[in-house]
Amino acid sequence: MNAAQNQPKAEPSWRALPGSQALAIASTADEILYHGTRGPGKTEAQLAYFVARCGTGYGTHWKGVIFDRGYKNLGDIIAKSHVMIPKIFPTAKFFAAKSDLHWHFPDGEVLMFRHIKRVQDYRDYHGQEYPFIGFNELTSYPTSDIYDAMKSCSRSGFLPA
Q1: Which residue did the predictor score with more confidence, 152 or 7?
Q2: Strand pairing class (132-135; 63-68)
Q3: Left, alpha or beta for 127 (phi > 0: left; psi -120 to 50: alpha)?
Q4: Which contiguous run of DSSP H or E holds residue 67?
Q5: Which of 44, 54, 39, 4 is nearest to 24 (CA)?
Q6: Residue ranges of E strands in 69-150
Q7: Which of 15, 11, 107 is CA-nearest to residue 60?
Q8: Which of 12, 76, 136, 144 is the most buried (most CB within 10 A)?
Q9: CA–CA separation, 113 vs 68, rounded Å?
Q10: What is the pLDDT, as a whole number, of residue 38?
Q11: CB neighbours of 1 closer than 8 A, spacing ≥ 6?
């Protein structure tokens, strides 16, 4: 038995919970509406879905945004991202400015955290390409108007070779 065989196996940095969380992260659906009680990992699943596709060849074409109705409400998901992302991508950098909160990954992928409160706010995103769009607490919006409007930004011009 050599020295490498004596080494304990490295534990993964993060592991999906079996069941709905693992199913959501592995999904190839265009839209995933994941709901449930507090605690089953919906927030982490959203982050993991984005992160699982980083470093896979999309580079700057893998761009995501996670919305909430206000910046203050993004605190929990940003805090969870600070626990998860550095374990998986130690060289990823988080940038925080008054209106610009985002992770930048080694191959150029970007995950932004933004607020969108009114349908009129959609104009700030119109014409942008976000292959990944997430909502933190989507059910806090009184109607589906913002969700429906943002679907037009859920696209990418990337064509794999």
Answers
A1: 152
A2: parallel
A3: left
A4: strand 63-68
A5: 44
A6: 93-97, 100-104, 110-115, 132-135
A7: 107
A8: 136
A9: 8
A10: 76
A11: none
The DSSP bridge pattern shows strands 63-68 and 110-115 to be: parallel
Q: Assess whether pLDDT exceeds 50 at residue 4.
A: no
Q: Is 32 helix (H, G, I), strand (E, B) or coil?
A: coil
CB neighbours of residue 47 within 10 Å: 25
The amino acid occupying position 148 is D
Q: Please tell me the predicted confidence (pLDDT) of residue 6.
A: 52
pLDDT band for 15, please (50, 70, 90 cuts).
confident
Q: 3-state class of 102 per DSSP?
A: strand
Is 85 exposed, middle or buried, given 0-12, 13-18 or 19+ CB atoms closer than 10 A?
buried
Distance CA 103, CA 94 (A): 4
Instruction: Work out the average pLDDT over 26-46.
Output: 84
pLDDT digits (tens, 9 = 90+) for 37-75: 776 688 999 999 999 999 999 999 999 999 999 888 999
What's residue 124's pLDDT? 94
Looking at the DSSP bridge assignments, the partners of residue 103 are 94, 111
Return d(Cα 109, Cα 113) in angstroms, integer. Answer: 14
- The answer to whether residues 85 and 113 touch, using CB atoms and an 8 Å cutoff, is no
